[in-house]
Specification:
Layout: H1 3-13, E1 20-24, H2 27-30, H3 53-56, H4 59-64, H5 66-82, H6 87-99, E2 103-107, H7 113-116
Parallel strand pairs: 1-2
Length: 150
């Protein structure tokens, strides 16, 4: 069904003042080439030589092996950066446009594709893994130390 048809169908069957909430997970970005977490080639399924992927996503592992954790996250960030929003993301933008401030997107995705597809800023509750923060204490009381990165 072409987008104009399903938008017309929504307008016809959804009361004008209704609210719409859309929930997405990793599956929406699979068509863009981003692995899901639990699928056959997913991040939790395909492990490293030394660690289970679930171990990599912990602060304890970061304290023990920061270089390995950075490498794992930078690989994921590179995959996300190279991906493009797909028709699912574009359809959600169309719904947001149709419903305006009566639209809410709830997503666990951190690939940033909802934002790149033009979902309004502040829309997704979590949107990207492309930002990081450093909790390392300053090297001296008056000088901030840069976060150690590979």
């Amino acid at each position: 069904m072409p987008p104009s048809d399903w938008i017309a169908t929504i307008r016809q069957h959804v009361p004008p003042k209704s609210r719409l909430t859309v929930m997405t997970g990793a599956g929406i970005s699979a068509e863009s080439g981003i692995p899901t977490f639990r699928g056959p080639e997913g991040y939790w399924t395909v492990g490293s030589r030394s660690y289970h992927p679930q171990e990599m996503a912990t602060f304890a592992m970061f304290r023990r092996r920061p270089d390995d954790v950075w490498q794992w996250y930078l690989h994921r960030a590179t995959v996300c950066h190279q991906a493009e929003p797909n028709t699912g993301h574009i359809a959600i933008v169309a719904l947001e446009t149709l419903f305006g401030d009566r639209f809410t997107l709830i997503t666990q995705n951190v690939d940033g594709l909802h934002l790149r597809a033009a979902i309004r800023p502040g829309g997704p509750t979590r949107s990207t893994a492309m930002f990081s923060r450093c909790d390392a204490p300053p090297a001296a009381p008056t000088i901030s130390a840069p976060c150690p990165r590979p």
